[in-house]
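Minutes, project check-in

Agenda point 3 was the complex the collaborators sent over. CS summarized: two entities, 578 residues total, and the question is how they sit relative to each other. Sequences were read into the notes so everyone works from the same version.
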Amino acid sequence: MDNEIWELRLYIAGQTPKSVLALKNITKYCKEHLAGKYTIEIVDLLKNPQLAEGDQIFAIPTLVRKFPEPLRKIIGDLSNEEKVLVGLNIRPVGIKNVE
Amino acid sequence: MTMKLSLKEIFPKTPSGIEGLDEITGGGLPKGRPTLICGSAGCGKTLMGIQFLVKGITEYHEPGVFVSFEETVKDLAANVQSLGFDLEKMIGEKKLRIDHIHIEKTEIQETGEYDLEGLFIRLNYAIDQIGAKRVVLDTIESLFGGMENTTLLRSELKRLFQWLKDKGVTAIITGERGESTLTRQGLEEYVSDCVILLDFRVIDQIATRRLRIVKYRGSMHGTNEYPFLIDESGISVLPITSLKLNHSTSSEILSYGHAGLDKLFKGNGFFRGNSTLVTGSAGTSKTMLATYFALSSCERKEPVLFFSFEESPDQLIRNMQSVGLKLKPFIKSGLLNIHSSRPSLSGLEMHLLVIHKLISEHKPKTVIIDPISSLVTVGNNSEVRAMLVRLMDLLKVNQINAFFTALTHPQSADYFDFTVDAVSSLADTWIRLTNHSDAGIRSRTLSIVKSRGMGHSNEINEFVIGDKGIKLKNNSSAK
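CS then shared the predicted structure for the full assembly.
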């Protein structure tokens, strides 16, 4: 699965501080741990409210891992890096041995 | 826009579409404000929500949105199909939207700050798509099961309820009953305009559903517990109809169907819309008098509803045939409807509702309940009394001639008998039948205990029963 492209989708509702922070955070983690093999699609529900139903969105911001499956969701501004990585099941780069 | 400062204008109401509830609340749920409906599992919250929307669509042309946190659209539609609610069709016609919000805790992680803006956007979108005036959130407390940050949830829910108000939709929010609070998460603190509590309990092995308005800001409302029923047409609540005694009265005099009996009253009969109680022990021919009463109404071409709690229609017809009273032709012509059921088959409220329903269906001018005392066996005293008052009231309001029979025990005085005690004060006329045995001969008597607004015989009249029916012996002394 090393060569697969991770498909992430971030649901926001306008440029609120929480949404901006979430985008900043996830971009940073991806650059660090998924360099070159990820896409982040941003869905602004204020512009496309009909898209909320498909991914069962109720909280904002919500990050959805569309691929690889299974579907995972993380809600919040994604400020806790460890939680996000665990939630998305991303193997952190730079940690060689875990004892 | 002009503003009138009457209470009605400040707090307008939306008809709930639930039979009886609007009477208790003086017009319905608070318009443009949220109402909390709480109760334990299986008490009918979801159904009440659905009915509110469906009736809103079919009767008041108000589209509605149902947000389900528990059941899927399919399940909901299937569940209410038996009530004749075709949700799929309404969805197709863009009058109804069901949004199923599914929260799968296992696939969700929380980190950092968030809000429920997504829910607001979905709701707003759904409302705007069909121009909804009514919204149901069922059961929003499910969010608490799916999310960790309850402090945030609480403040978001508070914001949601305010948002609903600002949006101007009339909303129902359902909540599961908590141990010491009305709802598990204390939603009643946030939805403060109107709170309705549903209850489901079993008394003497008969299940009864009850509804109570816990609060209704800025409105008068009934404070009692009202029985409600879920049957093939949905939920209906039984309000204690106006106890104001302001029904109109008639001075038209009608016949009891028996010339001899009529003569015992000064006016030669009874006033239209009056109620008559006949008491007597077993075999004193109460049912026979009731049959006379039914026949006279049929002859006036006025429909009769005959509740027979001890005999089946066939049995009644045959037995009355033997004394020359022919019911069959009137059953055929549709003027006479006999409704038989065992009193213990259902709870007291169910009986009352059946009576209610049949009355509104058949629109009878005459109602006979034979015997009313058998209903007493299915409830406790205060319930029976309340029910009798409601029944009497219903009949009075509709100007229906009522005829009740009550079985008494030969040895005990009438005033020891509960039914007689309860009914006799409500009835306008009371006829007492007895059955003595003296010196080897059994003799029957009939006497009039009371008759409101009408002079009557004070004598104890002997009578015999032959194949031509009842014959009064001394019949001369009508006053």
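Noted in discussion: The domain at 6-88 of chain A is CATH 3.40.30.10 (Glutaredoxin).
Follow-up: revisit at the next meeting once the mutant set is ready.
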